[in-house]
Amino acid sequence: MQRFLAALLTLAALTLPRLPLAPERALATPYWTTADWEAARAAGEASAPRGPLALAPIPRAPAVHVDELAALGAAASFVASLQVAAGPSLGGIREGEHLPNIIQTDNTSESIWLWTRFYQLTGDTTYFQNVRDSFTYSRNFPAYNEEGSSLPASGYYRMYNAGWAAFAEWFYRSVTADTTQKVYGDSCAGYIATHNLNRAGTPFEQQVNPPVLAWAAGNLWIVGDAQGNTAWKDAAEARALKVKGWVEGEPTLLSEETWAMSGGASMWGLLNSWFRENPESVAIWTDLRKDAMDDYALPLAEFTNAWNGWYALGHRAVWEALVYDAARLRALALVDTLVAEDGDLDGGIPARPADADTMDQTWVTSYLAFMALDPWIRATGVAAGDGPPLGARAAVAAAPSPFDRETRVLFALARPGAVTLAVHDVTGRRVRTLVDAALPARAHRVAWDGRDDGGAETPTGVYLLRIETPDGAGSAKVVRIR
Question: Cα–Cα distances in Å, from 388 out to 7, 236, 456?
């Protein structure tokens, strides 16, 4: 496999975006050793543990709303322009415009998702052959054989790659109904389920492993849930529980940036694994940590745009969980900021604001599409075989729980449509219908006063909230104490 690490050249003292003279140095996302991390840390390009950095959210009016679908289409075109067309690395995705000799499996997995999503949204089959070629490369250079090790202390890179690959293959299969790549996708999910990460290694590994493990756990849970694989869901939950403990013991993990990851990945991963399986606790846990992530990653370092992509995804996940408008504004401000990084309007963006327009990178562009643009796209263009977009789920939660007089039930719709939300007792009997109506695509909140449909008080006990939406069905427990 071609593996060319970018040489560390002179760091130009440029800090302003879009300057005519470009800095001469840019790292790519290949595997970092501890020495690489120490060098970046010494140059001020990897964050030290700290609290969240808050910048005032940028007001976003409908009149200046970004066309997310158009931007995602431009990103798909940019990534296609850097796919290897022939030779041993056929189908692989080059790291960037200025890094043509770096070809990585994570870039390639990201491209599979991006082109599949473009087809799902538009019905345009332009990139079908590109997807086939990306799978060819991925099978030749599988995610779980990437650089580094498979050890719990140092295996972050393979775990990160496996998370991308498992999700991308499942997403492709769910949209196209093509099962020819299932063996590869399942092998990547199986790798996550049979491997783990810890914080027993170097300072760099201690910092990078939490967001990577959370990312992998989130994707494993999504894929396991879609395929009815209880073992994968259990493995995802166990890994997420480990990250949850790390975050609770060290809250600054939600505001750290290192390598290609930031604390937004930890938040997204937990909300899409542990809290999908345990939705009754999501509101309280997330509320305590809803302001822990950075609003914007500083310093303006090597991977600032990537770090902000994760924060955009993390803040969006918080908004979905809590209907917390400050999180929505933070996420949208980061969407606008990242889209503005496409200075030459070729669909690609660089790793940091200081880089020239000739230094756009594929993996950061895929981050833009996956983390910033796609969660806000509502329309789908393919009727048959449509798979769920990232973040689309029938999630429901109640807070407070336990409650006495009233609890608030929260849910969000990725698409408009008919919704049924009801309260059931432990025998399965429907106690109260809270919603039975067509609702718009947005976050919703409804109160339950503890009474049944006849107006009588319900007794102390455990109740189950069940919701059916255009995105699927979901449930959550709620406890009443009188």
Answer: 40, 19, 39
